[in-house]
From TrEMBL:
Residues 200-237 form the SOCS box domain. It comes from Pocillopora damicornis (Cauliflower coral). GO terms for molecular function: ubiquitin protein ligase activity. InterPro entries: B30.2/SPRY_sf, Neuralized, NHR_dom, SOCS_box. Coiled coil: none annotated. This is NHR domain-containing protein. Residues 2-198 form the NHR domain.
Amino acid sequence: MMMRFHDRHGTHVRLSPSKTSATRVKSFANAVVFSHRPLAFGETFLFEIEEQEKDWSGHVRCGITTHNPSSIKSVPPYLLPDMAQMGRTWVFAIKSTMQKPLGDEQLKDYGGHNFQRQEAGDKDDNPVFCGEKAREGKLKPTDVGSRIGVKVSPTGELYFFVNGIKFGPCALDVPVDRDLYVAVDVYGTTKRVQIIQCGVPPLLDLCCENIRKCVTKQEDLESLPITASLKKYIATF
């Protein structure tokens, strides 16, 4: 199912007719938006920064929450710290360096969650995760054209993708038995973001994620009657 932004959002946000683009129309705050539905199993939420406003400081912030946007009486003006302090929310500020694109504000452990310092991983093979401008040359995570993705593993690990590079796990023990909505704060210099449709995960990946959810120990994975190459692939989930 196509991903869109939720009708419930900050007071300074204007959505496009398709509800796939969110623009902050004034000030630097009150521009929190949510996914219109929870993340599907194995799904990555991906968006691109489309416009900036240089007069402000700070940049886009994003993450996930178990709060259903429809049930939020008043959308908080900021993801950090306001939404994070509501609990059951895992959010990061995006920084301007690829060496450390996720800020440390959330490591103060708002809401008692198990946040982790993120590490850079392998580059994702999916070309959708890395936009045209990033492929052409060096692009800061906060620049126009930068693409940022959010995904939760079957075992409750939160990962980010920044211009095709995977970071994480950035949080542990995210409750995968709950509906998880994506939250984006179109904050500071970030003025407009556009959802990039990632499509449906391949059947192989869905099967592997289901196996990994049931078989969490490496020794149990090794005992499965499948090929060594498939075991190695399942271990990446």
